[in-house]
Amino acid sequence: MSITLLASKHPKIIRVFESCPIRYSILLCRLSTEPTALPPPSVQQNDDSIVKQAVQLLKIPHHEWSTTQLIHLLFSDPAPSSRLLFQIARRLPSSSHALKFLQFLQDNSPLPDKTQSLSSTFQAIVELASREPDSRSNLYELYKVSKEWIVPLTINSATLLLRCFGRNGLVEESLILFNELDHSLKNTHVRNVLIDLLLRAGHVDHALKVLDEMFQSKFDYRPNDVTGDIIFSWLMKRERLGRIVTQEEIVELVLKFGEFGVFPKSIWITKMITMLCRNGNTNKACELLLELMNRGAALEVAPCNALLTGLGRDSYRDRMNDVMAKMKEMDIEPNVITYGILINHLCKFRRVDEALEVFQRMNESQEGDGVSVEPDVVIFNTLIDGLCKVGRQEEGLGLLERMKLQRECAPNTVTYNCLIDGFCKAGEIERGLELFDEMNKEGIVPNAVTVNTLVDGMCRNGRANSAVKFLDEMQRKGLKGDVFAYTSLINAFCNVNNIRMAMEIFDQKLREGCFPDAIAYYNLISGLTQAGRMDDASSILSKLKEAGFHPDIVCYNQMISGFCNKNRMDKVKEMLNDMVKSGVSPDSITYNTLISYCSKIGDFKIAHKMLRKMTEDGLSPTVVTYGALIHAYCLNGNVDEAMKIFRGMGSTAKVAPNTVVYNILIDSLCQNNNVELALKLMDDMKVKGIRPTTTTYNAMFKGLREKKWLKQTFELMDRMIEQACNPDYITMEILTEWLSAVGETEKLKNFAQGHKASACPSYIGDLLP
Questions:
Q1: Model confidence over 170-186: pLDDT tens digits?
Q2: With CB atoms 3.0 to 4.6 Å apart as the test, which of 98, 295, 301, 547 could cross-link to 125 if both were Cys?
Q3: DSSP-assigned letter for residue 244
Q4: Per-residue model confidence (pLDDT) at position 166
Q5: Whole-angstrom Cα distance, residue 311 to residue 348?
């Protein structure tokens, strides 16, 4: 910054340095890009006298100037210095006065080489013009004058013009000026000014082009720390003009600067690492930080913590170890946040023992490992929560007692909430309530999460009525649960088919102004649908919409299924139309429900139409789709059509039938006395590795009994024992009545004993991989 600009912002500086001319001269020399020898005090005083006299002569109108007096004052021996002429020009009342002075010097200066004098004077003119109200138009006109009069710009003039052009939005003019500058003036400082103004104006590509030239320079205008600050501070701004710079470009810029020993500040590196991790480029962030370490960047722990957080979120454990090892190599001491990140990552993946090892190492000051780090309350809470999530609540209580002994890490509400949640999820509600009482005695205030946790725990363990009483008691004490607690209650009562109580809680909370969330509405709609109370379900659906929520596909499917069960096709159509208006597309479950309903009522034409529409909508029919059609055809006695669909499943649709489909067909075939085909289906199941159930065998035994085919019956009985498929009372009733009548009681006895002998091994075998 020039002394003039500095003084214009701070008038006190003018007074200080005018009272001490020597200091003023020294500062001017230091700030100037062109070194000037400091004159002796006597010369300095003489110069000040000349400046004052010249200013007095020049303040009058131009046409009244005394050329003779000025020439005598300025050009008598010794010749005036550039500094002296600069001081005269900058003290004139306006840039137009100063410009006339420049013209006077050009016309009257007897100096053989007056280039430097004219350049210095022009610099003063630029400074004056930059402070004037109409500087936007004047500055560029002044630049034109300098070219017309062949007055070379100084580096200070060029820099000031660039800054002023940028401040006034004259970006194109800035580029013209820069391109026309002499190569010797295009140093790092000037380029930094240009890059800064280009970035501020959104001319990103132009700025990066200038920067690229600096990267390619070996000596003249290499990038420096100022260049880095300009680029990195711009990159870290949330809102930037111009095109978006990609993450790849940012990483490339950082690495290029690193080749010149220029590195971003720690806070900027931290932001870059965080940005890359949040945008799914964790590997790129890791490579960047490790490369900066390798190049000797002076890093702090903050960017390392940011990277560890990203790596932990993406489960890159090996990379986390690499970063920790590199931190140790670079003597970057981990802090409590570092350890907290590691412990949180390990607890998240249920590796609590390893988390406890890290926790233990925090307090161990080992030689070469740096200083110990005291854990904070967040780390204690993370460990307690991790222990509770793997069912080790008692160890969590041990950490609670340890916290009580440390003033800096006293337990808080989160600590107790973690423990209460752990005991509630383990079904130990009483222990959770004991902790609740303890935290009250300790003066730790419970919050809505505490109440929610206990209410949800009671509901999950079949104690919904106790949860209601607890919630009412807390409400009387001024401690309310939030919508989560009421959602748990509604869901619990719906699960035990106590729809009356669920509706009562729902209506009560609406009256109290505690508006349910979408989940509460969904749970209630589901419960009402299962109970067959479709009118009530429709009423809740309307309230859901009034509350500003939008039904999802699961909600619509439940409503459609409920109305199908009630045979209310008008309401089914209403739901389908509502789906279309809401922009919710039917899924496979929607179509399966409709196909199943149409098939059950015998409207196979509509069912097949639905099947085609399902395919047109890009949805592939599932085994449930075909199973519904097959079951309906079998119920209507059309087994041939059912078998046709069954064969098409594997050949055309490429959908493998399951046990349910085989059971439907085998039962229907046996009822229609087509036992031979049913036996073939049994063999087909064996080939395809589909395991028959007791229902499959019962259907076959009924069919074989009608045919009186003992041989095939005995084979199936043996297969049933081999497959450890336990008979039920229907199996034993069929076989006992038939085999006793034909004198095969021994076979029946062996069959029963065979199942008893194989029961234990088969059960264990089912558990083995």
A1: 889 889 989 988 888 88
A2: 98
A3: P
A4: 87
A5: 13
Do the beta carbons of residue 627 and residue 596 sit within 8 Å?
no
Average pLDDT on 520-549 reads 89
Contact 302, 335 (CB under 8 A): no
Residue ranges in 531-587 assigned as alpha helix (H): 534-546, 553-565, 569-582
> Both tokens of residue 747?
């076979």
pLDDT category of residue 370 using cuts at 50, 70 and 90: low
Q: Is residue 610 part of a domain?
A: yes
Q: How far apart are CA 50 and CA 60, in angstroms?
A: 17
Q: How confident is the model at residue 226 (pLDDT cuts 50, 70, 90)?
A: very high
Can you tell me the distance from the alpha carbon of 293 to that of 328, in angstroms, rounded to the nearest whole number? 11
Is 529 part of any domain? no
**pLDDT level of residue 207 (50, 70, 90 thresholds):** very high
Please state, as a whole number, how many other Cβ atoms lie within 10 Å of the Cβ of residue 740: 11
Tokens read off for 223? 């990038």
685 vs 703: CA distance, rounded Å: 18
Task: Decide if 76 is inside a domain.
Answer: no
**pLDDT for the residue numbered 767:** 23
Residue 554 Cα distances to 517, 576, 627, angstroms: 16, 13, 21
Average pLDDT, the chain: 83
Centre a 10 Å sphere on the Cβ of residue 129 and count the other Cβ atoms it contains. Answer: 23
* Domain containing residue 694: 574-767
At residue 350, does pLDDT exceed 60?
yes
CA proximity to 343, closest of 380, 390, 395: 380
| Cβ within 8 Å of residue 575, ≥6 positions away | 556, 559, 560, 563
Count of domains in the chain?
Answer: 1
Distance between CA atoms of residues 429 and 463, nearest Å: 10
CB 508: neighbour CB atoms within 10 A? Answer: 11
The arithmetic mean of pLDDT across residues 124-138, rounded, is 84
DSSP assignment of 6-72 equals HHHH-HHHHHHHHS-HHHHHHHHHHH-SS--PPPPHHHHHHHHHHHHHHHHHHSS-GGG--HHHHHH
* Least confident piece of the model among 367-376, 720-729, 737-746: 367-376
Helices 336-348 and 317-329 cross at an angle (nearest 10°) of 160
Find out whether 491 and 523 touch, Cβ atoms under 8 Å: yes
> In angstroms, what CA-CA distances link 669 with 29, 651, 658, 703?
109, 21, 17, 8
Distance between CA 248 and CA 206 in Å, rounded?
18
For 7-31, what is the mean pLDDT?
35
The confidence band for 191, taking pLDDT boundaries of 50, 70 and 90, is: very high
Q: Is residue 617 in a domain?
A: yes
By three-state DSSP, how is residue 490 classified?
helix
Q: What is the CATH number of the domain that holds 740?
A: 1.25.40.10
| Residues 560-588 pLDDT 10s | 999 999 999 999 999 999 988 888 899 99
Q: Which residue in this structure is represented by tokens 């003019």? A: 173
Question: Amino acid letter at 426?
Answer: A
Is residue 392 predicted with pLDDT exceeding 90?
yes
| Banded model confidence at residue 390, pLDDT cuts 50, 70, 90 | very high
Asked whether 355 and 390 are in contact (CB, 8 A), the reply is no
